[in-house]
Each structure stands twice: as structure tokens, then as C-alpha cells.
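Notebook entry, structure prediction.
Reason for the run: the old model in the group folder had no record of what sequence produced it. Starting over properly, with the input documented here first.
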Amino acid sequence: MLVRSVLGAGLLLLLFAGLAPAQQYDLLIKNGRVIDPGNEINAVMDVAVSGDKIAKVAEDIPSEQAKKTIDAAGLYVTPGLVDLHAHVFGYSGSLWPDDTHLLTGTTTIVDCGGAGWRTFETFKETVIDRSKTRVLAFINVVGAGMVGTESDIEDMDHEKLAAKIQQYPGLIVGIKCAHYGRRDYFNLEQAVKAGNIAGVPMIVDNSILTNNDRDTETKLLKYFRPGDIHTHMFNDRHMEIVDRFTGKVQPYMYEAREKGRLFDIGHGNGSFVWPAAHKSMEQKFYPDTISTDLHNMSIFSTKADMPNVMSKMMALGMSLEEAIFRSTARPAQVIDKYPEIGTLGEGKEADIALLVLEQGIFGYSDAWKKKKLADLRLRAVLTVRAGELVFDERGLGFPEWDTAGEYERIP
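New structure, fully documented this time:
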């Protein structure tokens, strides 16, 4: 009897050992064109997920090895998109990130200045800790953030600001300076002091209107450091990227880029105009990063979600691969999060977007409500966040409806 028991146990072990490889992945995305610029991949490949991690990226992974298989033929498989300029706290037009970003293939967003050092804990408790979307922060130079007045120099304290950033390393990824109405650069000076202590960049959208004694060249070359970011690059009220008389990109823009200053789109409702974007893109002065400035007005007017803004860049001459790079690996690098995010590298968190590139006639609008027609549109059809299928427009991950005996199964 003992021999039989031992033999029986051995056979069971062999049986289970033979079955184990068949179910080693929780999710398998097959037959899609994987574009992962950070890993220099642009090929039809399969992506396997185990738990919340990318387990394998390779050609022809057998479907039998996965509990769920999604056929992505005809689709592009990319890292989850990274939006460096969104509004999910503090601002009256803030949107809930899971409702607006996950359905566009965007798995990481950076709230751009909603919270300051005095309001960050509330932001963390009410939004960051409750969202499926990965939410990071550019913390406002003003203590109250956008809940307060962003020209309030009495509420700027670079030491307390730096201390809050150091309290949450990796969660607070930089400092936001915006909507500043005084005739000086005091807010930038405070942000630079705090940034030097905490080791983070600042992101800026201060205007250059003639009544505030500020100009683009001084702002970029005197106050910015390498790695600092200017958002709203195609809004010529914030930055004069193109000379209005010659139509040429300003010489100091090239100098600023050579010195490590970075440029972000930050599309929004009022910060993207075709003339500035067209002239800049025509001269190959591309944005470093693509972002949305998504809020309750821009989501309806300019429809500035990530695929929409990427599509506009493609309509102005950027390749699909370049648009994906500037929406995944590059923004991750800018906030010192690469390769933690922005890649499909094995062992990294499984944030994945499935995109379709549609052909037709599509109208895209800018902040002036001017329309540009294009024949391509990029759109998200499926999103995986930390291994979980969170958005599936086409039901690619659902089983087929079995109509046999459907009424008999109704309880």
C-alpha cells in the first residue's frame, strides 16, 4: 500500500508539473505590432503578463501558456502612455483620472500644480491613493497650490517646498510655476532654490505678455536649468518659439535646447495654435514630450487626450514611432522614472496600450477653433494597468457569447 501511495503521489506530481507551463501567464497579447522605443522594438511580437509584471516579449508565445489571450492583429502595442500635464486636483476644472485617462491608453499622469506643500496630503489621500491610474505630481511653488492664488509670494517658501518633495521622493517629481501675474521672476527663483535642494526639475507656463516685463529668452537662458521644462510650447503667449516676422524658430530656442532646456506641449483649451506648431514642426523643432493639459474644458473643446495630441503631431509631420517615444519613454526619462515606466521591459509593471491607426478624413482643432484636416487618427482600444484589463472598447478580452441554452441558465 505504501508503494502504491508513493507511486500515486509521484504520478500526480508529474501530472501537475506537465500542466504548469500551460498556464504560466495570466495574459497574452498576440500578433500586435509592438512599438517600444525605449527598448528599440518595432516588430510584430507577443507580450506576456504574469500578475502585474511584463513576463516576456517575444515572437510566437504559445496561447496555451496563458489563461487569457488577446488577438491584437492590426493594432499597435505600446507601453502605457505617460501624460506629464494633467489636472486631477486643486483646479476647478479637475477630472477624475480613471474616468478620462485609462480609456485613452494613458496609465501614468502627472498632476500639474494642483497641490502645494500645504495641500499635498489631501491630494494624496483623495486622489493618488484611490486611483487605478498611476498619479504623480508636479507640486506647486505656492503652498496652497491651485486652491490658492498662484501669484501669492507670501505663500512661497522654498525650504518647506523642498521638505515636502523630500518626504515623497518619486511621487513628487518636480515643481510647477504658473499663472504668475507679478512683474518679476520671484516664483522661478523660489522653484529653482527648492529644486536644487530636492534634486527635481521645474515645469513652467509663465506668460510673456508685454505688461509683465518677461520675455522668452531671459526666462529660458537665465532662470532655467538643464532638465527644466517649459510647457505650452505652441502657445505664443507663453513662449515666443517662432519669430513673428520671419517665421523662423528663434535662435535662442536652439541655444536653450543645447543647454538642456526641455519643451512640452501641454495642449489644453488655449495653449496650442496651428501657426506656432506648424512653423516649429516644419523646421524639425519637435516637442520633447507630448502632454494634454486635460481638464473639463479641453476634454470637450480641443479633445486634448493623448491619442488626439499624438495624432496632431503626426498630422504635422511626426512619425508614429516618434510620437510614441515622446509619449512613453521620453516623459518617463524627464521625470527620472525610466525604465520604471514608459517601457515594456521584462519585469517592469505591466502598463500597456493597444492603439489603432485609422484612415479617413479627420478634423483637428486648435485653441483658436481653427480646423486642420488629416487622413490618420490614432485611438486607444484597450488599456492594461498593472496587469489588469481596465479598458476594452472592442471586447477583445471577453469570451464569445454562447447562445445555447441561454434562457435555461437565467436564475
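Summary: DSSP finds eleven helices and 15 strands in the chain.
The old model has been moved to the deprecated folder.
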